Amino acid sequence: MGVIKVSQSFRTKVTPSRMFKALILDSHNLCPQLMFSSIKSIDFLQGTGQPGTIKQMNFTDASPFNYVKHRIDEIDEEKFMCKYTFIEGDALMDKLDHITYDVKFEPYGFGGCICRITSEYYTKENVEIKEEDIELGKDRAIGMYEVVEAYLLAHPHAYN
């Protein structure tokens, strides 16, 4: 099994607390509303948000994928960080065993934050993954964060 590690970050004018609440704690409600053309629903299969919780993200017919399941491995509401693992779904493209994500929202400037995402792609035995597959996943993740950022900037009282 091979591992490909990818780090990315972006800055926003939204506070770490609001980004964390919207993207991590309430993503199951907010993301299907904001990204209705690609995300049909996010359902809790086990747990209520604590470590061990398993959620399933169901995609619309417009998406190239049907679903992905992820498990919350660690969550810290005071430090605005979350670790989770994609454990199942066609988004793993039969090439990946799983993907781990370490997400942190750190204060930056006056009232903003830097979102840092470290992803580790664990390939299946004897499988090579193309750089463009990883780039596509990175672009989708950042795109989701940017949509939520735009919503929070347009709605300054949401998730306070």
Automatic annotation (TrEMBL):
UniProt cross-references to SUPFAM superfamilies, sorted A to Z: Bet v1-like
The Bet v I/Major latex protein domain, residue ranges: 1-155
Cellular component terms per the entry's GO annotation: cytoplasm; nucleus
GO biological process assignments: abscisic acid-activated signaling pathway; defense response
Gene3D superfamilies in the record: 3.30.530.20
A single GO molecular function term of this UniProt record: abscisic acid binding
Transmembrane domains' residue ranges: none
Family affiliation: Belongs to the BetVI family.
Protein name in UniProt: Major allergen Pru av 1
Protein's organism: Sesamum alatum
